[in-house]
């Protein structure tokens, strides 16, 4: 007899669980109104407690559309809905999973903060720093000759190291700002994963490797290369002083247009390298202004300046002018370097790519601004290919 009563009790509990689960699903799809909630309280009181299986089932059917049952479900131990905290934790976990890069997958845990500090997982900065060097080295090659491959490899490695050093300097000087901006507060120094002292030590290590590369160049290039460090160290301060930090970045990032020619020729042909250098500065004003539109709200909030804030709604007019100046300067430099007709074909293709960026970018969309910014690696590749064919056929 006792076993029979125990069996009936178990069946009753299982029935309650299924009824509560069905009602939980219903109320998630059809939340009750205020009137139904008032009606439900009255009905709930009249219905009494659920002592028998049949009475519980009938009352459950009658209460499907009322709010009291919804309140009951919130406190029921049978509810299987995840809590708000668990849903939030799941959302954060998914975001973190999307943010993972090859650094998090392949590098040892102790090395990861240093790789992130040097932005090794975001190579676009290295490409943008390297392309003016490659333009200059290729343009400095002898007529009907290929560029010096060893020199290009040295400059490519140097671009990787100098870009990493620049990012380290930027994070050391901007740690007070980075903590206030959502996009940057997870950086190693701003988040406290690395101390400023460790960041300075890592900076010294990168500069030491860069010096090793610089010492392999001729004396003229060593002096010219060392002089760029003033620009590298002072650039992060410009956003506090002027609305034109992108122009200052252009002077810094395109120093390789001067250095590449000097490393090959041992001097500077100003008729060639000055227009080439200027083209790089105008190019930087285009892509970094687009990039700056990602952070314009945060920049206004923390009090830093940029060309995105300076130009505002007139941004596309300004960067169209910079784009035209970039292409004109590249044409003048190629003409003075006696490059042949293939160069101008590729220059026209590069103009099309740059125009596509300027006229299609949605400056209110962070994702589109970043997409157009990253596409500049292809502009650099197009111009370099044009210089190569223009030099080989000259």
Please supply descriptive tags for the structure shown above.
394 residues; mainly alpha; 2 domains; 23 helices; 74% helix; globular; disordered N terminus; 4-hydroxybenzoate polyprenyltransferase, mitochondrial
Descriptive overview:
There is one protein chain. This protein is mainly alpha-helical and 394 residues long. It folds into two domains: 64 residues, no CATH class; 232 residues, no CATH class. It is 74% helix and 0% strand. It contains 23 helices and no strands. α17 packs antiparallel against α20. The longest helix has 28 residues. The N and C termini lie far apart (106 Å). The N terminus is likely disordered.
Q: With helices defined by DSSP (H or I, 4 residues minimum), what is the helix count?
A: 23
The proportion of strand residues reads under 5%
How confident is the prediction overall: mean pLDDT? 81
What spatial form do the alpha-carbon principal axes imply?
Answer: globular
Low-confidence parts, pLDDT < 50 over ≥5 residues?
Answer: 1-7, 17-98
Helix/strand-derived category reads: mainly alpha
Largest sheet: none
Number of domains: 2
Q: Tell me the number of strands.
A: 0
Helix content: over 70%
Instruction: Give the SSE string.
Output: HHHHHHHHHHHHHHHHHHHHHHH
Ends distance: 106 Å
Rg for CA atoms: 32 Å
GO molecular function, one term: 4-hydroxybenzoate polyprenyltransferase activity
Family: Belongs to the UbiA prenyltransferase family.
Membrane topology: Multi-pass membrane protein
GO biological process, one term: isoprenoid biosynthetic process
């Amino acid at each position: 007899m006792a076993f029979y009563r125990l069996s009936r009790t178990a069946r009753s509990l299982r029935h309650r669980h299924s009824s509560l689960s069905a009602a939980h699903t219903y109320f998630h799809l059809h939340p009750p109104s205020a009137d139904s909630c008032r009606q439900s309280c009255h009905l709930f009181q009249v219905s009494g407690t659920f002592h028998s299986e049949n009475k519980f089932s009938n009352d459950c059917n009658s209460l499907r559309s009322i709010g009291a049952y919804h309140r009951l479900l919130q406190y029921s131990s049978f509810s299987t809905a995840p809590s708000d905290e668990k849903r939030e934790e799941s959302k954060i976990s998914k975001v973190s999973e999307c943010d993972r890069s090859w650094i998090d997958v392949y590098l040892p845990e102790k090395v990861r903060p240093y790789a992130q500090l040097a932005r090794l997982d975001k190579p676009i900065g290295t490409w943008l720093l390297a392309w003016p060097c490659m333009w200059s080295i290729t343009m400095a090659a002898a007529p009907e000759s290929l560029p010096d491959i060893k020199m290009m490899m040295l400059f490519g490695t140097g671009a990787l190291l100098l870009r990493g050093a620049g990012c380290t300097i930027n994070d050391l000087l901007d740690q007070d700002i980075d903590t206030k901006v959502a996009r940057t507060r997870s950086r190693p120094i701003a988040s406290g994963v690395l101390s400023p002292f460790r960041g300075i030590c890592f900076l010294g290590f990168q500069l030491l490797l860069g010096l090793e590369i610089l010492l392999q160049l001729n004396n003229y290039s060593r002096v010219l290369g060392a002089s760029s460090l003033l620009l590298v160290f002072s650039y992060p301060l410009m956003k506090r002083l002027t609305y034109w930090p992108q122009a200052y970045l252009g002077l810094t990032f395109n120093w390789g247009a001067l250095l590449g020619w000097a490393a090959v020729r041992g001097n500077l042909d100003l008729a060639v390298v000055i227009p080439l250098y200027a083209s790089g500065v105008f190019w930087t004003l285009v892509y970094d202004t687009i990039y700056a539109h990602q952070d314009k709200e945060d920049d206004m909030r923390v009090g830093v300046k940029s060309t995105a804030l300076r130009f505002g709604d007139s941004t596309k007019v300004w960067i169209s002018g910079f784009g035209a100046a970039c292409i004109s300067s590249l044409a003048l430099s190629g003409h003075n370097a006696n490059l042949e007709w293939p160069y101008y074909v590729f220059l026209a293709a590069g103009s099309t790519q740059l125009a596509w960026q300027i006229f299609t970018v949605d400056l209110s969309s962070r994702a589109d601004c970043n997409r157009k910014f990253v596409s500049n690696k292809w502009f650099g590749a197009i111009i370099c290919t044009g210089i190569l064919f223009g030099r080989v056929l000259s």
